[in-house]
Amino acid sequence: MAEPWATLGIDLHVEPTGPGLRRGLTDALREAVRSGRLAPGTRLPSSRALAADLGIARNTVADAYADLVAEGWLTARQGSGTRVAEREVVPPTGTAPHPRARSRPAYDLRPGSPDLASFPRAEWLKAARRALNAAPHHALDYGDDPRGRPELRTALAGYLSRARGVRADPERILVCAGFAHGLKLLGTALRARGARTVAVESYGLDVHGRLLTTSGLDIVPLPFDRLGTDPIGPAADAVLLTPAHQFPMGMPLHRDRRTAVVDWARRTGGLVLEDDYDGEFRYDRQPVGALQGLDPDRVVYLGTASKSLAPGLRLGWMVLPPDLAERIAEAKGGVDTCGVLDQLTLAEFLTSGAYDRHVRATRLRYRRRRDALVAAVAARAPQARVTGIAAGLHVLLRLPPGTEQSVVQAARWQGLAVHGLTQYRRPGALAEPVDALVVGYGTPPEHAWSGALEALCRVLPG
């Protein structure tokens, strides 16, 4: 009985053309290799399998293979099958050259990423295996609830309530593909319900402002003084804050201002968007609780796994007020667009306690790095001053006036990637200019930390 086409080995799309099957197949295969469509080292189907796919005699395929082996286009070895020969592929005329890959710096102290080498691969795989074994078959279908898998929303509600003081209900949690995705959904929903202006901190990430303006919203900067951000500034319909650990200045929102911004939201009907980007990482005392706990009807809580686990997971979440939850779900669409398997794995990771263990272990490692950085700067660069050290994965390294750009340039010459504070100052910022570096001590892998710290000290004044 002939084997059905669908069960045979490797798939290969090839269309023999011209007079004679053997010649047509040979020419088609040669052109596929010459053009680069079949890359060097690619394994081809057996002559038997390709003959069955094309509906031709096996000897025809074997003869075509033999011709191309003789010409040097293919190689054939016992036990290894037939493969495309290793050779330089000349792209067709007019093909644009591939862009050169950006070279990585020798040391990376830019903020924004954790130590990716510390990602808990073994524990994550165990959680993935348990989650997949327990998942019902329908969980692998198109998700019909845009809020995300109920397993993850339930696990997040328990964790956020316990660890961050969030008043969370699984029905009001929406899973998104990271903070930027969540902010984009919020911008769309706010604009749809009549909002026009969002107040943002004078220092922050430009990309967040661009996401809001793309949604049709105007952004205005908030004042910044010795107490940090003053959230009661220009008239606005909403305010975007990093209250637990202001990015990049590094201080929490002052306690009086925490109360004041919630009172403002109640009085005006405004909304507070709380970016809790690294709330788990506080070193000298208990973490500052989430602002959302003061009034869950006026504060949207946003968190992600980007700093605690890895940005590449693309998993974030929002805890929404009741009157906004349905609007955000509609803005996301009628289906769940976040990967189901990663959602189920994170849910298992949270409920099993593996997430807590990982956060505690990394918190200790990052605290040691912070302490080493503070000590090294004090000993070798007394003109610089380290601030914003109580929490997070970065510090603000204040420099003598007028030196920021020269230090950033010197760092580039040393192969050290580091950002100046100017990069995070918004246009029209209501704050005195400061010369400083924003030093992300979480980014380097453990083996590169001492070298990165040494390179930093070499470029600092004094």
How would you explain this protein's 3D organization?
- The radius of gyration is 28 Å and the shape is globular.
- It has 13 helices and 17 strands.
- The mean pLDDT is 91.
- The strands form five sheets. The chain has a seven-stranded mixed beta sheet with strand order 4-12-11-10-9-5-6, sandwiched between helices. It has a four-stranded antiparallel beta sheet with strand order 13-14-17-16, covered by helices on one side.
- The longest helix is centred in the C-terminal third of the chain and has 27 residues, at 354-380.
- It has 462 residues and is an alpha/beta fold.
Number of helices: 13
Low-confidence stretches: none
CA-atom Rg in angstroms = 28 Å
Q: Largest beta sheet: what is the strand line-up?
A: 4-12-11-10-9-5-6
Percent range for β-strand residues: 5-15%
Overall shape: globular
Distance between the terminal alpha carbons, to the nearest Å?
Answer: 84 Å
Share of residues in helices: 25-40%
What structural class should be given to the helix and strand makeup?
alpha/beta
Mean pLDDT: 91
How is the topology of this model organized?
Elements (H helix, E strand, L loop, with lengths): L20 H14 L12 H8 L3 H14 L2 E4 L3 E4 L22 E2 L12 H14 L15 H15 L8 E4 L2 H14 L4 E4 L5 H9 L3 E4 L2 E2 L2 E2 L8 E4 L13 H14 L2 E5 L23 E6 L11 E4 L2 H11 L7 H12 L2 H27 L4 E3 L6 E5 L5 H10 L2 E2 L1 E2 L15 E5 L8 H11 L3
Parallel strand pairs: 3-15, 5-6, 5-9, 9-10, 10-11
Antiparallel strand pairs: 1-2, 4-12, 7-8, 11-12, 13-14, 14-17, 16-17
Helix pairs in contact: 1-3, 2-3, 4-10, 5-10, 6-7, 6-9, 12-13
